[in-house]
Amino acid sequence: MPMLATLSEAIPWEAFRSLIEQGYSDERRSNAGCKRTDPIILFMMLVLQQLLNPSDEELKSQVNDRRSFEDFVGLGVMNTIPDATTIAFFRERVRKTGVILESLERFEGHLRSQGLEASGWQIVNASLVSVPKQRNSREENYAIKDGAIPEKWLDKTSLLHQRDADARWVKKIGISHFGYKNPLCQES
Hints:
alpha+beta
């Protein structure tokens, strides 16, 4: 599944509305001009900017040019794409009110709860492959960490077949696991 589709399914975007609305009050002086862009769409564009690091102008162009970006932010072919100035004004407004940091922290929390991790240019699905736990002595663990095979294992070839010197302990969402990380990088 493409990265943006995974992200769309993993994040409850409407949960951000009340927070984003605090920093994006409608200050229209008249009803003339374009309608206000949905703040969730603008927030999703800021998330894309955080992940992919394009300029405001490049972000507008990418959303206009790439169907996956257009679908991600919820704009159809006939919709008007927010321009670079609108994106910049929105970012500045939510930054001044302090809701952007809280929103991005909440976004990262949703990612972590789904076992995902944001890493520039990609979303990493940090799944784990478990293996049977080993009961190694301290000396054996020191040798393994140094990249060597413990001496006891060299004498008994059966131990070499039974032991996994590459598996490691890792914590995911506060729970310890023994095995391998199986990162599935999904680039946009």
